[in-house]
């Protein structure tokens, strides 16, 4: 498997540097996964644009984390599972809810369960959802537009989950307590 260096802002390709600075500011640090992705300015720039949209008004940040954690588990991305478990807890999501997702079960909260189920089903069925599956999501109090927002989150996750599996960056110390093996 190829080795991808964990870049710093100083060592990254020129076209990645401003994007890394923007992402470092958004996270308050530079995650190793993004430092590895920065080896491709094209991929990093595409991810940053999608990241900005995913984290703009729409679903709450806690709801985003439910989808992101579900995507990471569904895609078996160990780095992303640990990362999004930590971010979910920072958003006030209980360990019971994150543990359920990490164990491939639906969370207890009805809205979180609907989000998690939709995200998992989108990935597993490659977007070919039944009317019943979409109605179940809408029945939990979400809108048609929010179905499309979840698709955007799933797309962003595909980038980070797949890149994380291929680049295999080391997990930061602060996330090691949430190490996961699918």
Give a description of the structure.
The protein has a domain at 61-178: AhpD-like. It is 63% helix and 0% strand. The protein is globular. With 182 residues, the protein is mostly helical. The chain has helices at 17-27, 32-37, 41-54, 61-74, 78-90, 95-102, 110-124, 131-139, 144-167. The mean pLDDT is 95. The longest helix has 24 residues, at 144-167.
Short description:
It comes from Paracidobacterium acidisoli. By secondary structure, this protein is mainly alpha-helical.
CATH class of one domain: Mainly Alpha
Number of H/I helices? 9
* CATH fold-type name of one domain: AhpD-like
Report the radius of gyration as a whole number of Å. Answer: 16 Å
| Fraction of residues in H or I helices | 55-70%
Main sheet properties: none
Report the strand count: 0
Can you tell me the overall shape? Answer: globular
The structural class is: mainly alpha
What order do the SSEs take from the amino end to the carboxyl end, as H and E?
A: HHHHHHHHH
Indicate the mean pLDDT. 95
* CATH architecture field of one domain: Up-down Bundle
Q: Any idea what the CATH superfamily of one domain is called?
A: AhpD-like
Proportion of residues in β-strands: under 5%
Poorly predicted sequence stretches spanning 5 or more consecutive residues: none
Distance between the termini: 20 Å
